[in-house]
Amino acid sequence: MAILRDPACVIDDTGLILDANAAWWHTLDHSGTATHWATTVAVADRDLVVGELLVAQSSAQRVDLECRLVCADHRPRWFRVSIYPVDDQGPDIQWLCTATDIDELKTNHARIAERSSMQTDMLDVSVDCIKMIALDGTLIHMNRAGCLALGVPEGVGFGQEWLPLLPGDVRAEGEQALQAARTGQIGRFAGRSELPGGRPQYWDNTLTPVPGPDGATARILCVSREVTAEREAQNSLRANQERLALATHVGGLGIWDYDVTEDRLHCDDTWYQIMGRDPDQPIGSIAGFRSFIHPDDVDAATEVTHTAAELLTAGADYAAEFRIIRPTGEIRWVRSAAALQRDADAVRAVGFVVDATEEVLAAQTLLAEKVALEKEKESLARQSLEDALTGIANRRRLDHELAELRRDRTRSAQPVCVGLIDVDSFKAYNDRYGHLAGDTALRRVATALRAAARDGDLVARYGGEEFAFVVVGTRDPQPILDRFMAAVATLGIENADTPTGLLTISVGCVVTTTFAQQSATTLLELGDEALYEAKESGRNRYVVYPADSRSR
Q: Which of 82, 256, 278, 306 has an alpha carbon 20 to 30 Å from 317's alpha carbon atom?
C-alpha cells in the first residue's frame, strides 16, 4: 500500500482504519489521528458512502463511487473512491479503500454544463428554428422554436432522425441539402411543418457545415426562417394572376384606347364598372379622367405626353398602379398597362385596367407584418441582453462583451480594466426600508453608474446588488472610479445602516495590459478579491489590483 501514490487505507467491517499510506494522512488527515474511515467523508455524502459500503459487505464485491472527502485543509474535494475486499480468509474481511482526486474534473464539468445552459437560453430567444444535426441526419440539439414547430418535447427528441419529422414531399430536397452540407457546401431548401389540427408552416432552411478540429465537416447547423406569410402572399399573388388570365379570357378587364396626339379617350363598359361610373356618361379625354383619380396619384397617372415620349424612346410599355375614388367615396387600387404605338404623326396607347385592391392591401399587410416581426426580433434580442430590473446590461451581455473584446485584437491589445461594484449594507437596507425601496435604489444606482461611464464603457448588473464594468484604453481607472463613487453619493439615498447615513458603494478593480492572455473568469475573480478588500477596509472606497502581477 505504501507504493500507491493516491490516498489509500485498509479498514475493517466497522469502518475502523487499520492502516493507511502517507498520501492518506497527508491529503485527508494531516494530523494522522483519524481512526474511523467515515470521518473523512463530507457530511452531505456520508449516507451514500455508508450505504455503498454495506452493499460491498453484503456481496463481498468491489464498489466504485464518487463522493466528497474532507481534506487536511478542512475543505471537501471530489474523489473517486474504490472499496474492495483484500482479505477474505477468516471470519473478518478487511477492505482496501483508494481515493483518486477528481475535483478539477467535476468542477470543469459543472462549468461546461453552465455554459451549455447559457447557450441554450440564447438560442431559445430566437424565433427562428435552430438545429444542430449530426452527419447521419440525427438531431444533436434543437432550440425551443424548433421543438414547437416540429411537435418535439424539449430535450427529449434529440438523437432521432430529423427528416422523418417533416412531411414526405419535402424530404427528398432536405436530403439533397444535407448531402451538400456533408460535403462542405451550404445547402438550402424550402420546407414545411404540419402539426395535427394546426395550419401548415413554411420554412426557408439553410444548412451550414460546421468544421471540426481537422477542418472536415463534423456536424451541420440548420437555421429555419419561417416564410409562411411570404408563401401565403405568393399564393395570393398567383391566384390573382390566375384570376387576371381568366378575366382577360372572358372579357373581365377594362379596355381603354387613347389617342395621345388628339387627346381622345375611349373605354369599354368593364372599364366604367371598375371605376364605379355610368358608361352612359362617357368621358372623352384625360382631363375628364383626372377627376376619378386620388389627388396624391393624379399627376403620376396622367402625365401622358412626357411618359409616352420616354416609353417610345426606350421601346417599353406603359404600366402604372394608382388609386381611384368612386362616386360613393370608396377608394380602390387599380393597375393599368398599355402598349404604345406610333402611326405616322400620331401616338396611340391601347391597354387595360384591373382592380388590384385586394392584392395591394395584402402586400401592404405583409410589409407591415414583416416590419413588426423585425421589431419584435430586435426587442427580444435586446431583452435577452438587458437586466429586467435596472434596464442596463445583464450578466449575459457582460460575458458576451468580454468574449467579443477577446476576439478584437486591436481593442484587447490596449489596457483593460475590469471591476465589480457592491452596494454597501444592502441587505440591511432592504430589511429597514423594504424590497420595493431596494429595487428603486438599485435602478437609481444603475442609472447613475451608466451615466458616469464613458462612451464605449460597459456597466452591467452582475447579480443581486452587484454591478460589473469593463473599461478599455486606460491604465489608470482612478478618474472613472471617482466618478462612480461621486455619482452614487450625489443620489443622496438615505441609508441609516452606513457610517455616512447614505447609500454608498465599494469597488474592486483589476487592470491588465495582457487581456488576451487572461481569462474573463480570472479577471472577475481578481476583481472580486479587490472588492472584498475594499469592503473589509471599511467600505465606501475602491481598491485597484494590477492583474498582470497577480496572474493565476
A: 278
